[in-house]
Amino acid sequence: MGASGRLAEGKAGSEPARPVRAVVLHGPGDVRLEQLTLPVPAAGEVLLEMEVALTGGTVLKTVRRGGHARLGAPPLHLGHEGVGRIAACGAGVTGWRVGERVLPGPSGPCGACRSCRLGREALCAEAVWSGGLFADALLLPARIVAANLHRVPAGLSPERAALADNLACVLRGHERTPGRRNERALVIGTGPLGLLWAQVLSQAGAQVTLAGRRLAAAEAGLAFGAAQAAVVAELAPTAPFDLVIEAVGAPETWTRALGLVARGGRVNFFGGVPPASVLEVDATRLHYEELTLTASFHYAPRHLEAALVALGQAGPWDALFEPGVLPLAELPAWLTKHAVGPTPRKAIVHP
């Protein structure tokens, strides 16, 4: 079943297995709603009843490409942004109680390897990865429960809390390439992650330009603190930026980002490109213009906690959502439709 919460046939323990629905990827564009059975929690595990899950650019790329470098290969249970309530705890689970509203991170770092000791849990080679939040319920692996399960603060709606995954990614990216007061920053990408980048950079004091393929889409960034909107193809390299964030995940925009960074500037290749993609860099320019090229992937549990705190504050959060609610039964068709083309706002999925 790939990297997802445990779903299986048969029984676990002394109680009968329960039927649940889950959205499963079987190949590029092949998304199905399946009826499965869910065992009771084993030692260290938690049974999570889903309240809300969100779509996003990562899941759409996963559908389009037929898998994900970390979340796994088909058959893959989809969904890694969501909130649920604890329905049962396995033996040995402490500190949690039935009924609590929680948000699970998609990875459980080991806490002991060199990356974890350096505070770079996103690079943990021994991490357990788990998705499967597009479901009625799922079992969270013991490592996720121990290392990356978070209480939703009182007063924070489950829909807004579920944005924490995206915001945590941006917070870690900003930790690696922070915005600086009065510098010119460019964010390429008008999806939810690009909008969140615009907000975080503008709050740091940078003068942000949000750019996309269409000006109307880029203008959404004005509500997130961007000083101006632009069309990527119309940006001139004669007016370069001190910081460029590539939040699309396409080889052509990675190359475009390099062409728009100023002398002494920084680029964060934030959007993940397809496997085997190659980036060509002018080594002379890299050296003599002192460019800094970085990338950021995923986040540590502390970034998810910080995101939940930030989401409890006033912000343009609701502008990230598609209107209405998408039933779980309609999600496979929605994912197939939107796997190509511009990334839409986040659909709110209810079981």
Task: Give a summary of the structure in a few sentences.
The chain is an alpha/beta fold. It has helices at residues 57-65, 114-117, 142-147, 158-161, 164-176, 192-203, 215-218, 251-259, 283-288, 301-311, 331-338, and strands at residues 18-27, 30-38, 46-54, 76-77, 82-89, 101-104, 107-108, 128-129, 137-140, 149-151, 184-188, 207-212, 228-231, 241-246, 261-269, 292-295, 326-327, 348-350.
Question: How would you explain this protein's 3D organization?
Answer:
The protein has 351 residues and is of the alpha/beta class. It contains eleven helices and 18 strands. It has helices at residues 57-65, 114-117, 142-147, 158-161, 164-176, 192-203, 215-218, 251-259, 283-288, 301-311, 331-338; strands at 18-27, 30-38, 46-54, 76-77, 82-89, 101-104, 107-108, 128-129, 137-140, 149-151, 184-188, 207-212, 228-231, 241-246, 261-269, 292-295, 326-327, 348-350. The strands form four sheets. Strands 3, 5, 6, 9, 10, 17 and 18 form a seven-stranded mixed beta sheet that branches. The chain is globular and about 65 Å long. 47% of the residues are buried. Residues 6-14 have low confidence and may be disordered.
Order of helices and strands: EEEHEEEEHEEHEHHEHEHEEHEHEHEHE
| N-to-C span | 20 Å
Structural class: alpha/beta
CATH class of the largest domain equals: Alpha Beta
Number of domains: 2
Which stretches are poorly predicted, pLDDT < 50 over at least 5 residues?
6-14
* Oligomeric organization of the protein chains: single chain
Q: Which fold name fills CATH's third level, the topology of the largest domain? A: Quinone Oxidoreductase, Chain A, domain 1
Overall CATH architecture of the largest domain: Alpha-Beta Complex
Average pLDDT figure: 92
**Residues in β-strands, percent:** 25-35%
Helix content: 10-25%
